[in-house]
Amino acid sequence: MITLTINGLKVQVEEGTTILEAARFLGFPIPTLCHQEGLSPYGACRLCVVEIGEEPKSKLVSSCTYPAEEGLVVRTGSKRVVNARKMIIELLLASCPQSKTIQDLASAYGVRRQRFRQEHEDCILCGLCVRMCSEQMMAKAIGFRGRGKERSVGTPFDVQPDVCRLCGGCMYICPACSLRCTYNEPDKAICNACANLNPPCIQKERFNDLMCYMSPCVACEIDH
Length: 224
Description:
Blueprint: E1 2-6, E2 9-13, H1 19-25, E3 49-52, E4 59-62, E5 73-75, H2 79-95, H3 100-108, H4 128-136, E6 143-145, E7 152-154, H5 169-173, H6 203-206, H7 218-223
Helix pairs in contact: 2-3
């Protein structure tokens, strides 16, 4: 067993457990887009970042790929972590503003603006569809193509391969395809239609290093 500290709580987990698995087992929610039970960890979306180590030498790591280590100190909701997640959400909104999954994340993290150029590219390169096709459907009909800003997901030579069974698993798991936000202003990146604008949470005021990690927030549920 490995002993580590998560949000001030000393816990023990089995060797080989990731920080994400340990935190979720204890009830600390960590948002993810590229992680899915049954698929290999990928660490693409970076939404699951957590802060490890002691300041001033602490650093951000993706919790879905980082293994729990003996004596590790982890913070899942520090100011640094929350600010990083907000930045990532803004970037995701620039690529896929009509994903309801991403819009809900924006509302949950209080993102009220998106400062980056609107691309409307839709695909966020999370790799879920590629891993689903390869690891669950055993087809490997789609994959990544190109590098850098030219990177995309598709079939070889843009031709439907014989191994594709049209199962729809890639669309089912895709956060851009599965749920579409249908707000009335398509050029507006953030609709905030689902936002709780006045969460009466005292944790953020009292503890700078530990945001409210209850989901759903008990205080918000009572207030509304």
